[in-house]
Design a protein that fits this description.
By secondary structure, this protein is of the alpha/beta class. The chain folds into two domains: about 1-40, no CATH class; about 45-240, P-loop containing nucleotide triphosphate hydrolases (Rossmann fold, 3-Layer(aba) Sandwich), CATH 3.40.50. It has eight helices and ten strands. It starts with a strand and ends in an 8-residue tail after the last strand.
Amino acid sequence: MQISVAYDFRPKTHTTHTAMVRSHFGIDFETGRNVIAENLELPIEPGDLVCFTGSSGAGKSSLLRAVAGQLSNVINIDDLEWRDVPLIDALDCPFDEALHWLSLCGLSEAQLMLRTPAELSEGQRYRFRLALGLSRRPDWLLADEFTATLDRVLARVISCNIRKLGNRENLGFLLATTHEDILDELQPDLHVQCDLAGEITFSRNDRQKKVAACSTNSSSPPDRNATGRTSLGGITAVTTWSSSAS
């Protein structure tokens, strides 16, 4: 797949404030054309998990959208609309399937299933959008700022679940994130790295293709939260922490 991404800088109005910035820093308005990528060949195959990483402003989201524009049956979780009904009804699929998708995305607690999307936190609503997109069975699921609103332990769990699902269903994922701590769990088939200097590099990992093994273990144990509850692969376990009497 060949990708070209560029845009023209828009004309700007000269004001007192912009003049002060230009004078203080010795710069002027940017003009002309900003080229993010030109004739970039990306070896993307059906069913790939493609992950774009880089700092904010490095162009990863622009590349993500350009790739999606050349594929068919792509669902962008940011474009999804839903009814304001309890989550278990919002997925518009049979009960068992709704349970499966919600659990896969870390929404397996019964109380959460009875809440509406408007009653969720930002992180929970992000996970709901993932579940909703998956339930509609696209060929490609697009998620910008992937796991950005999640705590990092849950982010790795969701990433591992996504990797396993892609292997099992031959479902393609287009993901962009500033967080590289999830790459071990994602095991992307194609990893595209963007930097602020405008350099784009990529690496392909066919050795891991269709291998459904990934670990949610890390070098340090997950933080114990207030409830002692963690979600692993849609299974919720409650651990009771005991302390000896003084």
